[in-house]
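4.2 Preliminary Data

To establish feasibility before requesting continued support, the project team ran the inverse folding procedure on a target of 224 residues. The structure was first converted into the token representation described in Section 3, and no sequence information of any kind was made available to the design step. The complete token record follows.
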């Protein structure tokens, strides 16, 4: 076999190996990777305003293990459940209380159920969009040592309780699967979530907080 024939066969083999079948009805896809919740919060004013005329709160980001489970109803339509290990965020004073440090930590899960549409690109790349509903499930909220010290200055009588409401909201999503084989894929996804809660501190102070995070996930998937 001459060099040209060998090169031609190698080229054909390469093209064939790259012709991986797109998602189909009945496929079950499990994805796992690093998921980051990045709030784009909008805080109300801490009530009552006797504490501060423009006291607010802010919340930081966190990264955990993200998991998604997709079942393909048709070649183009699927339904996905987003899950994760618990996220933990620190809630800080903001507004004219900025610089006062943290007030609490909050641990939560953001399970999300979405309907997805996969575009037929006739290639190894399967982009998709989705819309669904998320549920902010607060597992634990507690005041920090700094928060307790600040509350002592306010005079809450040693009451350091932190309560926050669960939340239900819409979620919009976009993502892409890059198929590495008939089973294995690389995945990148982004969600915009409508999440809001009311935080009550020491049964005395209240503040409304729109969290509305962007959620990013990079990982790998396996198709059954």
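Position-by-position output of the design step:
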């Amino acid at each position: 076999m001459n060099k040209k024939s060998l090169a031609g066969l190698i080229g054909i083999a390469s093209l064939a190996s790259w012709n991986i079948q797109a998602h189909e009805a009945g496929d079950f896809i499990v994805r796992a990777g690093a998921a980051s919740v990045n709030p784009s919060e909008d805080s109300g004013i801490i009530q009552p305003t006797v504490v501060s005329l423009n006291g607010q709160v802010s919340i930081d980001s966190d990264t955990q293990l993200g998991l998604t489970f997709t079942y393909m109803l048709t070649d183009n339509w699927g339904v996905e459940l987003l899950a994760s290990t618990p996220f933990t965020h620190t809630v800080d004073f903001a507004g004219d209380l900025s610089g006062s440090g943290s007030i609490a930590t909050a641990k939560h899960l953001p399970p999300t159920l979405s309907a997805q549409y996969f575009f037929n690109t006739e290639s190894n790349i399967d982009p998709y969009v989705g819309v669904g509903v998320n549920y902010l499930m607060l597992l634990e909220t507690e005041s920090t040592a700094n928060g307790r010290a600040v509350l002592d200055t306010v005079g809450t009588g040693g009451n350091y309780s932190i309560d926050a409401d669960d939340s239900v909201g819409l979620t919009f999503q976009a993502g892409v699967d890059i198929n590495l084989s008939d089973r294995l894929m690389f995945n990148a996804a982004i969600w915009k979530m409508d999440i809001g809660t009311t935080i009550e501190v020491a049964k005395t102070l209240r503040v409304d907080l729109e969290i509305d995070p962007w959620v990013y996930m990079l990982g790998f998937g396996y198709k059954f």
